[in-house]
Design a protein that fits this description.
Length: 335
């Protein structure tokens, strides 16, 4: 089988070069957090370079680096369309594609996934309470205006508390798309062992799975309904310097909801520090991880090795409960 050399491996490559080598209709679920390339906050983001550039697209009064470039969203769409088309090809019929995004970029990402042939089934919302507010005051610019001091003070007073349009961001949208099924859901499940959601999974205090989750304690009702286990420093690995490590429990939740087959393969084309692979492995599933950055590939491999050697490091995140009813897997094996 063409995929054998990739199974349970983290591969260092540009995803667009690697995906064409993966067999068609062979992957159960794709779960990923792609790079966004917005505001130049990609891997190549460099403060000096951004500050020194001629900011023709920058919104006046925004500091360099808060560039608003219409072309960025369009370029992201074109690039993600190519990625999504490959993901569409390699997923089994009925296979799910979970893709993390940002509130500003979601529309471009979801459109690329949709245009690649997927059916957008839903969007998840990862809710959090802590984030840095990025809005800036304009006093600095008022100070530079060629008007007298009294007039400046008047404007400052008038605009007191009014800032540039960056609201404190407290949620992350995640698209849930599906490759069209092979006839009915039942037929698809029997034939390809993918395409339905496991409603036995529990979130919060033994609650039915929802499209909202959080890993922060917020208040009694929200925690009861949507809380997943908080990430620990240990699960991330103290050596892990990746900037956007996802909580293991989040990846576990989405994998548990969507992966059915015993020998299922979960693929993450932008694996970063390996969270999707660690979650899949922890749940006894196969994985394929891809990242263009060698350092992150090594971090992923180290985390996966730690899971073998010290599974306790990851234990406290496995608290999504499943009731002891006969699983659909068991039922299908009887059919
Ligand atoms: C947002 S991070 C993923 C973080 C990951 N979810 C985790 O928990 O660590 C996106 C990753 O995509 C990788 N990347 C960016 N462009 C890539 C490309 N063309 N091919 C493969 N990987 C790429 C980056 O190196 C980065 O690690």
């Amino acid at each position: 089988m063409k995929n054998n050399k990739f199974i349970n491996k983290i591969i260092c490559s540009d995803t667009l070069k690697l995906l064409p080598q993966i067999e068609s209709d062979s992957i159960d679920v794709v779960l990923t957090d792609p790079p966004y390339f917005l505001d130049k906050l990609d891997n190549n983001w460099d403060y000096e370079a951004v500050s020194n550039q001629n900011n023709q697209y920058a919104i006046k009064s925004l500091p360099a680096g808060m560039k608003f470039d219409r072309e960025q969203g369009k370029k992201f769409y074109a690039w993600y369309l190519k990625i999504s088309e490959e993901i569409f090809r390699i997923l089994k019929p009925g296979g799910f594609f979970f893709s993390f995004s940002s509130p500003r970029l979601y529309h471009r990402m979801a459109s690329a996934i949709d245009d690649a042939g997927f059916e957008i089934r839903d969007a998840f919302m990862w809710l959090y309470t802590q984030n840095q507010a990025k809005a800036m005051g304009v006093d600095h610019f008022i100070k530079k205006m060629s008007i007298d001091e009294k007039a400046k003070e008047k404007i400052k007073e008038k605009l007191n508390g009014w800032k540039t349009p960056q609201i404190k961001s407290c949620f992350e949208p995640i698209a849930m798309a599906q490759k069209p099924t092979d006839q009915t859901y039942l037929n698809n499940m029997l034939k390809h062992e993918v395409g339905m959601l496991n409603t036995n999974v529990r979130i919060g205090d033994n609650m039915y799975p929802a499209n909202v989750f959080t890993v922060d304690n917020i208040n009694r009702l929200i925690d009861k309904t949507f809380l997943l286990p908080k990430p620990t420093k240990k699960e991330k690995g103290e050596y892990n310097d990746h900037k956007t490590v996802k909580p293991l429990a989040v990846c576990e939740y989405l994998i548990k909801l969507s992966v059915f087959a015993k020998n299922a393969v979960v693929l993450d084309p932008f694996i970063g520090s390996g969270t999707t692979a660690v979650a899949a492995k922890k749940l006894g599933k196969n994985y394929i991880g891809i990242d263009a950055n060698k350092n992150y590939v090594e971090i992923s491999e180290r985390r996966l090795k730690e899971l073998d050697e010290t599974p306790d490091l990851f234990r406290n995140v496995a608290s999504i409960k499943e009731p002891k009813t006969k699983s659909l897997q068991a039922q299908l094996q009887i059919v």
